[in-house]
Amino acid sequence: MTGQTTEGAQGRPSWDVPVELLVVLGPGTGVPAAPAGTESPVPGTTAPPPTRPLTALDALRQLVSVTLDCPPRLALVPLPPQAAGRIAEQPYVVGVYTEAPPPAVAATLGPGERLFVDAWLLRVEDRAYRRKRHRHGDRLPWDAPGHEPPDPPGSAVPA
């Protein structure tokens, strides 16, 4: 099965075309608070700066390219839908979605995270709409048979 990509190239399998997937990470996967008792043992000396612990978002970035994120729990990754399983099997991942997450997952999101998901859904729906719509003369030259050329500059009738 082959499909036509947005650039017009043919021959690439349609199942291999990357789409933007929403990755929801588990709660509490951000940078943890510093453990108690990490102060300098001797007054007047300073402990070396602690290394920043790896967050789930950092770990995800080591696996795949993240195009946009809403730290600490949401990320958008460009992958073929079939590659979602590789990401979903990570212990810190709640789910990987090509459409709206289930209500149980959406209920765990904060207001800012819900806004991020809503904006992503609008982008997904807009792309699907643009793929499906058909406009007469779309992508034809302006002087194609059966079509009129555009009006010359300045020819608009003032209101």
Summarize the structure.
The chain is α+β, with helices and mostly antiparallel strands. The chain is 25% helix and 13% strand. The longest helix has 22 residues, at 111-132.
Description of the molecule:
With 159 residues, this protein is α+β, with helices and mostly antiparallel strands. It has a domain at 16-27 and 53-132. It is built from four helices and four strands. A four-stranded antiparallel sheet has the order 2-3-1-4. The radius of gyration is 24 Å and the shape is elongated. Mean pLDDT is 77; it is low at 1-12 and 32-36.
Radius of gyration: 24 Å
Distance between the termini: 53 Å
Query: Strand-and-helix sequence, N→C?
Result: EHEEHEHH
How big a fraction of the residues is strand? 5-15%
**Continuous helix count:** 4
List unreliable stretches of 5+ residues. 1-12, 32-36
Give average pLDDT, whole number: 77
Q: What is the number of E strands?
A: 4
Q: What can be said about the biggest beta sheet?
A: 4 strands, antiparallel
Overall SS class: alpha+beta
| Helix fraction by DSSP (H/I, runs of at least 4) | 10-25%
Shape: elongated
Biggest sheet, spatial arrangement of strands = 2-3-1-4
